[in-house]
Design goal:
Layout: E1 3-7, H1 11-22, E2 26-31, E3 41-45, H2 55-59, E4 64-67, H3 77-91, E5 96-102, E6 113-114, H4 125-144, E7 148-153, E8 155-157, H5 163-169, E9 174-176, E10 184-186, H6 187-198, E11 205-209, H7 217-228, E12 235-237, H8 245-251, E13 256-257, H9 260-266, H10 275-282, E14 293-297, H11 305-319, E15 324-328, H12 334-337, E16 343-346, H13 354-370, E17 373-378, H14 381-394, E18 397-402, H15 411-417, E19 425-428, H16 431-441, E20 448-450, H17 467-476, E21 483-488, H18 497-510, E22 515-520, H19 527-539, E23 546-550, H20 555-561, E24 564-567, H21 577-584, E25 588-592, H22 597-600, E26 615-617, H23 622-633, H24 637-654, H25 657-672
Parallel strand pairs: 1-2, 1-4, 2-3, 4-5, 5-7, 6-13, 7-11, 8-10, 9-12, 14-15, 14-17, 15-16, 17-18, 18-19, 19-20, 21-22, 21-24, 22-23, 24-25, 25-26
Helix pairs in contact: 1-6, 3-4, 7-10, 11-25, 13-14, 17-20, 18-23, 21-24
């Protein structure tokens, strides 16, 4: 069995050691402080200032010696403290020494592209120490005829050390310095290069080890923030940044490192040719070697946006090779959730009773243990309380999705709602929701990820509609030969039904068209309000023109037969799912200019008359709503077709289920990989 001895099982050394063990090598290595490592590594506690008397025994029969300990002012600490042990090893015919150095030895190249022939010109004492150590190893190995490879490494990153972790911890900085370029290399690529050298017959060589995309440091932070759907840190000029002396030294030099030599000589193909692929790997759940358990918690699995999202995320976890777990009180969507092998745990998480909440904490602790859960995702307030305490006690990751704009009319309500922002990360389903969270709880940007609600573009697609059902609806509600105006959504005061009636009254009296206004949604829970609306309709003599359809299972078909869809809410919603679904159907949408609506209808008729994807009206203003309906009814067929295409494209670009699921899974992966090395 081949043997690797690594001085310095730090971030890089440990990764190299683990890889060699996977390839059936015997691995020895040193650490300064006790910590948990792969049990297959023979670990020595090594203080360079205090020699180990029996080091020769551990070094014996070593094939590859890897030096990953930083030098001091005297040069290499291993040679300066254990010279005799190393010379014995070299005399006994070790195959190769690999010394991990740094591209800082080149100093500042003023942004020029440089290779291994560029003269060393260190700016810092740290880099000068590296040159001294390089020369010590090269000269000693030359004396004994042993190949010595010096790897000059760029900035090292990978799982456990990256800008995604920095963002989650609130440590990321976006420092801007004109012309500044940094070079990087993924730790797995370093490992692959060390392994390739260990199995080669190359003579002594110096190699630059860097990826293919030198780039400004702020680009990496911004890309990481985009992957997490969080706002990047505020930009800070280099002059105003509070940096340590070491950090300042990094910004004192700029260069573009060429990696052609190592690619050609070792025939190396980088696994991560740029920071983009490297960061994408960190948020890719499929790449996890350990299959973590992920548990969603919700009050029930009945109808509703949050419940449907549980199903969609469960499906995406299946695609990524995971079993999805959901704890809730059950409901009519339970069967759909369990398709594909997902597991539902029945718990009374819809209860606000303090005793039941405490019982739920105990039950969730049992669930976390039983299914080896590593991450809990809460989707509502009562379940979030139990999930928070269970996660904390079991030391597993905890995050939430803030699905609604919750009322805070009392101190109790505020305390109750606060559990929705106690996770390591809070997902907001719109920029508007994020704004509300920050106004209420002063949560920093790095703790809020914006992931818009996704639309099922296969379900809400005019090509998926069954024409026979459409004909049936038209006949049943006498909708033939009429322009249909639809208001989908349960009947409540804040949904704007009364506003729609007022606007329709004006429209009906001033139009020669046959018009119908239909309300499609649950109307039994707020019977007094429904009665008030029906009385208003009778008073206006519109009972033949305004219809209540009640709860409709097939909303896409109702949208299909409509000409205009209204969303006249008088209070802001957290997202506006109906607006997005209607646009996905290519419908003309007229919505209240309130809350997050402009995030969906991002180009309206007044701001961009040539490229708009919907209409906005002044919230609560029935006259303005009437004007917008009238304007929409006067569009010619070509204008309607173009608007329909723009509406569909706007949803496909930003608001699909696929995009929502991918972003959520990235959050899971980033938390689960946060401390993985």
């Amino acid at each position: 069995m081949n043997k690797l001895f690594c001085f310095g099982l730090g971030f890089t050394g440990e990764n190299v050691a683990n890889y060699f063990i996977q390839h059936n090598w015997q691995v020895y290595g040193t650490i300064r402080k006790e910590r948990s490592l792969n049990p297959n590594i023979t670990v020595l506690k090594y203080d360079p200032q205090a020699k180990l008397n029996d080091l020769k025994d551990y070094l014996s029969e070593t094939d590859i010696l890897l030096i990953s300990i930083a030098p001091d002012g005297m040069g290499d600490v291993v040679l300066n403290n254990n010279f005799d042990d190393i010379t014995v090893l070299l005399k006994n015919g070790i195959k190769r020494v690999i010394y991990l150095s740094t591209t800082a030895v080149y100093g500042d190249a003023e942004g020029k592209e440089i290779d291994e022939n560029f003269p060393v010109n260190p700016n810092s004492q740290r880099a000068r120490n590296r040159i001294k150590a390089e020369r010590q190893w090269i000269n000693l190995c030359k004396e004994y005829g042993i190949p010595c490879n010096v790897l000059r490494l760029s900035g090292i990153y990978g799982r456990g050390r990256n800008q995604i972790k920095n963002l989650l911890n609130g440590n990321a900085k976006r420092i801007i310095k004109k012309g500044q370029i940094f070079n990087r290399i993924h730790v797995e690529d370093i490992t692959n290069i060390v392994f390739a050298l260990s199995n080669s017959r190359l003579a002594s060589e110096v190699f630059n080890v860097s990826d293919d995309l030198p780039s400004p440091p702020q680009d990496v932070v911004e890309y990481a923030a985009d992957l997490l759907s969080v706002t990047p840190p505020d930009a800070i000029s280099f002059e105003n940044a509070k940096l340590s002396n070491m950090a300042k030294s990094f910004y004192s030099e700029t260069k573009r490192i060429k990696n052609t030599k190592i690619k050609n000589i070792l025939n190396i193909q980088l696994k991560y040719s740029s920071y983009k692929q490297g960061l994408e790997e960190i948020v890719n759940l499929k790449n996890n070697k350990t299959k973590f358990g992920i548990l969603q918690v919700a009050p029930s699995i009945d109808s509703g946006g949050a419940e449907q999202t549980c199903i969609e995320i469960g499906r995406e976890l299946n695609i990524n090779g995971f079993v999805s777990y959901l704890a809730s009180s059950g409901g009519r969507l339970k069967g759909e959730y369990e398709k594909g092998g997902n597991i539902h745990i029945n718990l009374p998480l819809n209860s606000k009773n303090p005793l039941i909440i405490i019982m739920n904490i105990v039950s969730l602790i049992y669930t976390i243990k039983k299914y080896n859960i590593s991450l809990v995702h809460a989707r509502s307030r009562a379940p979030a309380i139990s999930a928070y305490f269970a996660s904390k006690l079991m030391k597993v990751h905890f995050l939430t999705t803030y699905h609604g704009i919750y009322s805070e009319k009392s101190l109790f309500k505020r305390k109750y709602n606060q559990f929705m922002v106690r996770g390591q990360l809070t997902i907001a389903n719109s920029n508007y929701t994020k704004q509300i969270i920050q106004e209420r709880y002063a949560l920093p940007d790095n703790q809020i990820s914006i992931i818009h609600r996704g639309v099922d573009t296969e379900k809400f697609n005019i090509k998926s509609i069954k024409s026979n059902y459409i004909d049936q609806i038209r006949k049943e509600y006498f909708l033939e030969n009429s322009k249909i105006i639809l208001l989908p959504g349960r009947v409540t005061k804040w949904k704007g039904h009364e506003l729609a009636i007022e606007a329709f009254r004006k429209l009906n009296s001033n139009s020669n068209l046959s018009l119908k206004l239909i309300f499609a949604g649950e109307n039994k829970k707020h019977e007094s309000h429904t009665k008030k609306l029906k009385k208003l309709i009778v008073d206006y003599g519109l009972e033949n023109d305004i219809k209540f359809l009640g709860h409709i299972k097939d909303i896409p078909s109702i949208m299909y037969l409509s000409d205009i869809v209204l969303c006249p809410s008088v209070e802001p919603e957290a997202f506006g799912r109906v607006i997005a679904e209607s646009l996905a159907m290519g419908k003309i949408v007229i919505a209240s200019d309130i809350g997050p609506v402009r995030e969906i209808i991002n180009k309206n008729d007044e701001d961009d008359p040539d490229n708009y994807n919907g209409y906005l009206f002044k919230s609560g203003d029935s006259s303005d709503l009437y004007k917008k309906i009238e304007k929409a009814l006067n569009l010619n067929p070509k204008q309607i077709q173009n608007l329909s295409l723009r509406a569909v494209d706007s949803i496909i670009e930003k608001f699909t289920i696929k995009k929502m699921c991918e972003k959520t899974i990235r959050i899971y992966a980033s938390l689960l990989n946060k401390n993985v090395r």
